[in-house]
Structures are given as C-alpha cells and as structure tokens.
Specification:
By secondary structure, the chain is an alpha+beta fold. The chain has helices at residues 22-39, 43-47, 83-95; strands spanning 16-17, 50-59, 77-82, 106-118, 124-136, 144-157, 160-170. The chain has three helices and seven strands.
C-alpha cells in the first residue's frame, strides 16, 4: 500500500477547471448537496451518491518537524471505509443501536475553497476543498470544531455525480471530539 502523504493527491491533477465554469459549478453543487444531506440526517439519500467502489480514508496527523515529512502515513488511520462499512454505519443510525448519536448531534458542514482538476479518466475529477464541521451535542453549550482539507475524486455517471474516493487530512493532531460517529 502506498503511504498516505498530503503532498500526493488521491488522483493526479490535470488541467485546472476555473471557478464559474459549468463543471466547477456542478462539482460545487454536488459537494454542497452532499453536506446538506448529511446535516439533515438523510443518510440513505447520501449513500446513493457514493460510488460502489468508494473508499474514504482519514489518516492521523502527527506533529513532526519539517525535515521529518508531512505528518501523515498509512500506519495510523482514523477511518478507512468502503461502501459496505458506510452502509453498515447508516443502518446503525436508523436502527437505534448507534448510541453515540442518540440523541443525534446537530452538525453543520461548511465546504469552501474548491479547486477542481481534470484527471486521466475523462469521467473523474479531482476536487480539493476545505471542510469545517461544527457539532453540538445534547444540551452542551460548547461546540466541537473539526477542520480539514479534503481530496475527493468525483465521478460523472448516468446516475449523476458520485463520490468515488475521499481522503480527509485533518488539521488537528488530537481531534478533541468525544467520538467520531459522524460522517466527514
């Protein structure tokens, strides 16, 4: 397995697609709608937007000096999920056995700074974006905050856009969340 490195994208970036171009607008719309489905708790509808070969990984960030590398490798990963594990998580959320999310968290996902690139596959695009999550749990007056950079492979299909791969590079070395029971 290739080491996870924040300098190595999940797909090789080709020509940049400019803000305002129709493909850019479609990709941004997809990412905003995806975040909205998750924020609204529409997990089955969200799951339909995942490709059958989806893979989502979130490597652990290490605080290293600059000569020691990027701080990410494949030996420590917070999440490594495919369609089966994502489907299982969705079933748990609807089935009443996801105790960490009962009552459900109130979550807002903000997607910004999208940069979109062609790849060697004419139906796939590399989408680099920033993610900020605010989560409120129970009656707590404090929010959990989670920030990251994402590299997604978005695929155009006859069903519309789908997410084929996601790598989430967290900004925090220590997450500071009570649990990671939400989708990132």
């Amino acid at each position: 397995m290739q080491a996870v490195d924040e300098k190595t994208p999940v797909a090789k970036a080709g020509k940049s697609i400019a803000y305002g171009e129709s493909l850019y607008n479609e990709a941004m719309h997809f990412l905003i709608e995806e975040a909205g489905l998750l924020d609204d708790g529409l997990f089955n509808e969200w799951l339909e937007k995942m490709a059958d070969d989806i893979r989502c990984i979130m490597p652990v960030r290490q605080s290293l000096n600059s000569q020691s590398g990027s701080g990410f490798d494949d030996n420590m990963i917070w999440l490594d999920e495919d369609k089966a594990t994502l489907s299982f998580k969705v079933q748990r959320l609807y089935g009443g056995s996801a105790w960490a999310e009962d009552p459900p968290s109130r979550v807002r996902r903000l997607i910004t700074n999208l940069r979109l690139y062609e790849t060697t596959n004419p139906t796939e695009y590399l989408a680099k974006s920033y993610l900020l999550i605010q989560r409120s749990r129970g009656d707590a007056h404090q929010f959990d905050t989670f920030s990251a950079r994402r590299e997604d492979v978005l695929r155009q299909t006859n069903k519309g856009w789908q997410l084929a791969r996601r790598t989430v590079y967290v900004d925090q070395a220590v997450l500071g969340l009570a649990n990671l029971a939400i989708f990132v």
